[in-house]
UniProtKB/TrEMBL annotation:
Biological processes per GO annotation: autophagy of mitochondrion; negative regulation of apoptotic process; positive regulation of mitochondrial fission; response to stress
Pfam family, one: Pkinase
Top-level taxonomy: Eukaryota, Metazoa, Chordata, Craniata, Vertebrata
Protein name: Serine/threonine-protein kinase PINK1, mitochondrial
Record family assignment: Belongs to the protein kinase superfamily.
GO molecular function, one term: ATP binding
Quaternary context: Upon mitochondrial depolarization, it forms a supercomplex with TOM and TIM23 complexes. PINK1-TOM-TIM23 supercomplex formation requires PINK1 interaction with TOMM20 and TOMM70 and is critical for PINK1 stabilization at the outer mitochondrial membrane, kinase activation and downstream mitophagy. Upon mitochondrial depolarization, interacts with TIMM23; the interaction is required for PINK1 accumulation at the outer mitochondrial membrane, kinase activation by autophosphorylation and PRKN recruitement to mitochondria. Interacts with PRKN. Interacts with FBXO7.
Cell compartment(s), UniProt: Cytoplasm, Cytosol; Mitochondrion inner membrane; Mitochondrion outer membrane
Organism domain of life: Eukaryota
Main localization, broad class: cytoplasm
Amino acid sequence: MSVKHALSRGLELGRSVFQLGLLKPFGRAAAKLRADRLRVGQPARTVQPQAFLPSRYRYYRTSLRGLAAQLQSAGFRRRFGAGSPRNRAVFLAFGLGVGLIEQQLEDDRRSAATCQEIQAVFRKKKFQSPLRPFTSGYKLEDYVIGKQIGKGSNAAVYEAAAPFAFPKESGSRCSLVELKEDEDEGQTARSLSCCSLRNFPLAVKMMWNFGTGSSSEAILRSMSQELVPAGPLALNKEREQITLDGHFGVLPKRVSAHPNVIRVYRAFTADVPLLPGAQEEYPDVLPARLNPDGLGNNRTLFLVMKNYPCTLRQYLEVSIPSRRQSTLMVLQLLEGVDHLCRQGVAHRDLKSDNVLLEFDSDGCPRLVITDFGCCLAQSDSNLQLPFNSIWVDRGGNASLMAPEVATAVPGAGVVIDYSKADAWAVGAISYEIFGQRNPFYRAVGLESRSYQEKQLPPLPSSVPADVQLVIHLLLRRNPNKRPSARVAANMLHLSLWGRKALANQDSTGMRKLADWLLCQSAVVLLKGCSGPSGNTVESELQRSFLSNLELEDLRSAVGYLLYGREQRPACILSA
Ligand SMILES: Nc1ncnc2c1ncn2[C@@H]1O[C@H](COP(=O)(O)OP(=O)(O)OP(=O)(O)O)[C@@H](O)[C@H]1O
């Protein structure tokens, strides 16, 4: 064997150790890696070996470090170093190969550190409420209630105003007299520009209470899921909070504020009033005091939120958002779902009626996930629900129930994992956002429990290829093959803002991407300093992305995207 040949053999050997783990300690990791590649139909050379394998990769990396140390040991050097020139060449090249590994590990360390530093900078900036902070509002009498703006199967929602809670951006403060005059004018259309939203910046949701009793304790307990998006000051410390937290039990889990999740500013119990339309629209749920035939209890729960101009469904009925806006809308839902998942909450009733919509200063729709009445919010945060009897509630919305939830059969030891269920629902709603019928509603007729991925209707060719890929991956039946909301969101972020970095991305390191992340952070920070452009949907999304940066999630997103760009979605689905 020539020295040149020996050198190249040595290099190859060093590289092989990294890629496949030929030596004994790496055998298991390599086998799993190969199996995973086969499972995702991933070509051997094009995608990072670490993609899709966060925890395994860590093991693999630690083992490689051990190997490098071994190689440097004196015994190893003596054995090869004292041999023929050919052996020395093999050893030299082998060392070089291992040197490359070390370099890559160093790159990884630096990229991970960059991600952590960026995350720390953006986590510090807390999401600000659009309303001026207010200290009162714990009684129904604190509000002027306007027209009914919505109704579901559990509640009626009314526009409301309180002189102490007007939007920060609105300089004008209307008096209650002005508000009443506006009301008398009888406005009908609801749009962001109309006075209705300016005069009634709040919405009050009045829950229908029948069967729970009229004590505050019972009401708060039985409707506690509605309190999951409630802010820290939502409950009156002296009354409701003590009821829940102090004498009787544990305060329900709450999620922190996020631009794509509704915020409940106040929650209190009060006697059911006779509000506009009550006798005509929901007489049965009124208490006997208001309707002798009514079945409702005398008291119920009220939730105070920001008033939004419409739901996602209402908006899509009358508007055709641009491709970019639609992509931003899907991304917002994924960011909202990721935020919930991280805090151990599965919404379980995602649908376009449960997404509210307003517009930012650029006219881009901003989406917020609302109505947490069916959510799973356990204190241990693992999103696993023991499913040992048919009486266990699997959540709302049967049509948009993820396959792993819809097909679960109750039994001893059965557990439903909800960690990717909402992400699946976002995949289904994405069809509506891109102007198509939701494939899981009656008109198209797929059933989540039985559909095959190849039956999913094609998305219009105008939908960007990366977005199509994300939607198809979100609708994978097997949750192990489905990306999490975080990874799917990362894919869209990279596709929207990191195209150049991605185009230059090779399969060996994340350094170029880390450089791009630093530039992106600088841009977002500067935008934040330059006034209102920091409050646009795009800026909020970019901040969400940067404050949740994890190297492994980013790697997985890159892996999926690079692979998807080489394959057509249909091939991925059949893999
Ligand atoms: N903050 C808000 N701003 C404007 N409209 C709202 C707001 N909250 C709710 N709505 C309207 O009220 C409707 C009913 O609200 P919501 O979905 O919370 O009630 P629900 O009875 O819990 O619904 P479901 O039948 O899904 O259980 C919504 O579809 C929407 O049209």
